[in-house]
Amino acid sequence: MLERDLDLLKSAALEAGEIARHYWRDDPQVWDKGGDDPVSEADFAVDTYLKTALLAARADYGWVSEETEDDPARFEKHRTFVVDPIDGTRAFVAGEKTWAHSLAVVENGKPIVAAIYLPVRDKLYLATKGGGATLNDDPIKATRYAFSRETTLLTPKVTLKPHFWKSSPPDFQRHFRPSLAYRLGLVAEGRFDGMLTLRPSWEWDIAAGALLVTEAGGHATDRRGKPLTFNTPSRQSAGVVAAGTRVHPALIDKLA
Predict the structure, then answer these.
(1) Under DSSP, is residue 126 helix (H, G, I), strand (E, B) or coil?
(2) For residue 21, what is the domain's CATH number?
(3) pLDDT of 16-47, one tens digit each?
(4) pTM of whole model > 0.90?
(5) 19 among the known binding-site residues?
(6) Is residue 61 located within the same domain as residue 125?
(7) Is 66 known as a binding-site position?
(8) Which of 9, 101, 157, 200 has the fewest C-beta atoms lying within 10 Å of its C-beta?
(9) What contacts 39, CB < 8 A, 6 or more positions away?
(10) Residue closest to 194 by CA, chosen among 237, 228, 148
(11) Which DSSP helix (H) or strand (E) runs through 55?
(12) Where along the chain is Mg(2+) bound (predicted)?
């Protein structure tokens, strides 16, 4: 069943990419959801397609998406789709390349199937629980280095504020990408040693990426080191820390 769900997510992600590319760099209509949180007509078009296609194929699954009103019926389902139609909408609207479609199937609060697709960069990440993770069909692995000042972390500048750390922020090489899903994919493929975001994180941004990281041999938890749980009432986690097996515990130990 996992492989059938993986094929379904893969097909849906690729089609979502075709839909989104019709709007990309073509002056799509954009609205502000409040707090400088943009949403475009492409987000809605992709969301409509994904909800229609995925639930037509799996009518007994629940649905969680950034662009769909929450439906408590999801709590009655054995499995639930957790989807971000376009993760990195601000980058999408700006005509940048670093935005992604993030799709996951969650069972008993844990992601079991995942797909993250970056259409413009032609990067397709896939994972199944117990089946490993791939990038464009090639197996990927998270890094296994110890934490040092050479450690590369994907994180926003705000993370460096002293109050987030037990003492002072440790030395590391900071990088950034606008899409949370892509950051998790980059950790899974070993391009970076880890990523962290310390603000509350929406499930649709991180469900697929969390499975990618763990199936690539890394760890993904909330900022306190607790397991990530999905399809929750709040649909949020207390931040995300994802990294290789040696960097992750070092980060958790250093965080306040």
Answers:
(1) strand
(2) 3.30.540.10
(3) 999 999 999 999 999 998 877 899 999 999 99
(4) yes
(5) no
(6) yes
(7) yes
(8) 157
(9) 30, 31, 32, 33, 67, 89
(10) 148
(11) helix 41-57
(12) 66, 84, 86-87, 205
pLDDT of 1? 85
d(CA 118, CA 121) in angstroms, rounded, equals 5
Sign of CA dihedral 160, 87, 232, 135: negative
Output the CA torsion 134→136→138→141 (10° steps): -40
pLDDT for 37: 87
111 and 27, same structural domain? Answer: yes
* Domain boundaries, position 11: 2-139
Residue 181 belongs to some domain of the structure: yes
Specify the pLDDT at position 33: 86
Q: Which residues of 19-48 are buried (b: 16+ CB within 10 A; e: fewer)?
A: bbeebbeeebeeeeeeeeeebbebbbbbbe
Q: Which residues of the chain have pLDDT under 70?
A: none
Binding residue per annotation — 206?
no
69 annotated as ligand-binding: no
The pLDDT score that the predictor gives to residue 78 is 95
